[in-house]
């Protein structure tokens, strides 16, 4: 059993007969009344996100998890195939437990969180950012912008990302996997 002082991002807990992963948390100490912890929980079975507030000192059921590195091989419909980087054992995971499946390029290394008691994969942690090549983008017209004008661009995995007007087809861009947003152009 853990308490609210042990809450951190990425912690997996049992709550309401389900397993949740803490995405965000905030310890709040109001001037009047007891302290509490405001959290954002993501269900590892169905992917739904809910907001919850725990009172300070509340006991929570922590789930013992192990993290292993896997390499993304290929996708078959809604099933994504991964290979363990050390034992070369392959697993198939459903698209629902992936955070950003449309940004997953073949060969990308991810961290798979596995429940230590049941050996069941719970979630997949993507790298903080990925570098992908732009395959289609409308040409940007110079001079008709005020500030921060963007256009949609399709990257090699099929995802669509809003990018600045100076990005063209063939450019490699860095994308934040948490928000699926453009970060910078990459020169190689």
From TrEMBL:
Pathway: Protein biosynthesis; polypeptide chain elongation. It comes from the Bacteria. Residues 67-122 form the Translation elongation factor P/YeiP central domain. Involved in peptide bond synthesis. Stimulates efficient translation and peptide-bond synthesis on native or reconstituted 70S ribosomes in vitro. Probably functions indirectly by altering the affinity of the ribosome for aminoacyl-tRNA, thus increasing their reactivity as acceptors for peptidyl transferase. Residues 130-185 form the Elongation factor P C-terminal domain. Belongs to the elongation factor P family. GO terms for molecular function: translation elongation factor activity. This is Elongation factor P. It comes from Flavobacterium arsenatis. Keywords: Cytoplasm, Elongation factor, Protein biosynthesis. CDD domains: S1_EF-P_repeat_1, S1_EF-P_repeat_2. The gene is efp. InterPro entries: Elong-fact-P_C (IPR015365), NA-bd_OB-fold (IPR012340), Rib_uL2_dom2 (IPR014722), Transl_elong_fac_P/YeiP (IPR020599), Transl_elong_KOW-like (IPR013185), Transl_elong_P/YeiP_cen (IPR001059), Transl_elong_P/YeiP_CS (IPR013852), Transl_elongation_fac_P (IPR011768). It holds the Pfam family EFP_N. It is found in: Cytoplasm.
